[in-house]
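Bug report

Summary: structure tokens for Membrane protein (TIGR01666 family) differ between web form and batch submission.
Environment: batch mode, default settings.
Steps: 1) Submit the sequence below via batch. 2) Compare with the web form result.

Sequence submitted:
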Amino acid sequence: MKSYSQIIFNNFRELLHFLKSTNFSKAILIAIAVTVPILLSVRWGHLEIGLALCFGAFWSSPSDVSGNFRHKKFGILFSALLVMLVSFIGGYLKFETWLLIPVLGLLTFAIAFISVYGFRASLISFSGLLALVLSFAHESKELEIYEYALLIGAGGLWYLLLAVLWYRINPKAQTEELFWETYRLTAEFLETRAKLVGPKMDRLELQSKLYEIQSKLIEHHETLREILLLSRKSSGRSSYQAKRLLIFVELIDMLETAIANPVNYDKMDALFGDHPEFIESFQNLIFEMAGQLRIIAESGTDQNKFPKNSKLVHYFGKVEHEIASFRKETGTEDYEGFLMLQNLLQYLEKQFEKLKKIKWLLGNPDMGSVDLVDQAAAKRFIVAQDYDPKLLLSNFSFRSAIFKHSLRLSVTVMIGYALGNFFDFQNPYWILLTIIVIMRPSYGLTKSRTKDRIIGTLIGGAIATGFVFLIQNPYMFGALGVVSLVIAFSMVQKNYRAGATFITLTVVFVYAIIRPDVITVIQYRVLDTLIGAGLSFVAMLWILPAWGFMEIREQIKNSVKANRAFLAQIARYYEQKGKVTTTYKVSRKEAFVETSNLSSAFQRMAQEPVSKQKNLDKIYELVVLNHTFLSSLASFSTFIQNNPTTEASLKFKNFISEIDENLEQVLQALENSKSDQAPIDSHNNQFAKEQLPSFVPKNIELSSRVDIKLERELQEAHLVTEQLHWLFSLSGKMLRLVSKIEFD
């Protein structure tokens, strides 16, 4: 068990990292953007102007997320324009309630529907929805509506100015934080793989965790790719960017190398059951690598804190000695076991080389003026967002998840506003605000945010009540409100429950300054939150529900298509040899991304009510088959790139053709929901019966110099023949499984 001092040290280290995080710095920016206009306007006697600037800055801040800075600037700018327009329209919505409700619903739908243009567009949409809802909370008495709207836009520009200034002061902050998180996730990924080879482990749970970590890693890789590659395009060469790009490549390779070396757990269990010493030896190696990645994450560029290689060298020496002893003892009796151990050792040696290169690059070596990335090729790794207006028309259908979410949200907002006015709540817009913040396109996320929002509001309300009874000083309320605001926006992305707690505290402290009946405010805040959360949850169940089984088929299709394209590129490279093309690399990246997306879609489906988890076991099996297929492809890809191979034989081409045919039939079956053809049994398929030559010739003699050459030939034959049979078997299993599943 960890000592008390170690726990304190770890907590202190986490606190330091939190204070250095981009979430904390963004929260500080928001606090400055909100408080400075208020303070200045109070000083000069123009509170209405200060409030307008404050609202504009606050509503434009959601677009300030990690990513390419140019995209971030445009996101904040478009948010400012949208909130200005919405505030202008909202200012004239002074109709009777019966007429206001449908107009409110129409505006909510239109703003939410902007999300069809991707993640950053969804943040701009969220800003617009905030502005729409909160336009009911404030009625300017000193300013004309158009003046108020223009000041709202100016507030957005004020926040943009602060964001640009902060970026100029600390341009490396978000890049370094993303690397820090990527180091830690990579370490966790390696550790989880190491635990999988241990005895008596819950492999189903660990495998699920492995897929989750892999999905997070690929998300981080996508963000880093956007920052590093697009920054080079816009600003030219940079020594810092060049080195970080090389480190990024090594981290991607560590993930892909791990995935490209799948473990046959049945064979490994049998081998380790007879030789348990290998479990500890290999796990020590992997755990030490993971530990070194964590130390690197904490050390930054301080070379003095980098872990030494001596411990890993010692572990490698021990494993090599044990493998040599195993080979000497078993001879040719368990040659497959020897090759398994040897391949595992070679995999770890590759990871060690990548780890050493990361340390070397962080040591600020002189890179000269070498251009590390072909700019034209780099563009192909970035998926540009399509902003064609036709995208709106193509998504204007009940088949679109965004369309259904927008319609569901607008209906719920109308119901919430009607209830708030009918029962004459103190602040009915709080109901709408809760709906806007909680409701998400997926059931699982909406459910978790509903629970966290309710719990956070109750805790925040209880804490605020205590403060209100103990403190009567408005200046203290103001200071506590600013502190709560900073903490709230620092934590809202990482821990929504804690964020909701401090948001409630912020609201109460602000009201405590301007209203004497703050206890009543707390009561209504809790009540309105409960109503808004309840409406959101019920709406997800009954208003155009978007269950996972409705979208999982499309995700499976995308993953199979990407794997098929990667297979085609591998086959082409195997036949033509030469330099690895950019098309090859892009197809590999797409295969990893789509398989990760499939895992995420399945996780969302698994969070839904049991009654809606149609064919969950079969779909999980299909997800695992897709992951396994990609692992096998990656393994094959790595081998043929790093080893000389013979000319592609007719048998090889036939196998590739049959595997591709199976994948084509899988796609056809998915397209038709349920295949009209009878499931194909690859075990009874005539082609599958054809056996390739055994990879271990009988009566071989392991001696002299020929042994080294023979080993290489055996390893090549082992991997190629096994992978072809395995890929064909997996594709056949996918086809049989898909043919049995009804997705509609």
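Above is the batch result. After comparison, the two runs are identical; trailing whitespace caused the diff. The mean pLDDT is 82. The radius of gyration is 29 Å.
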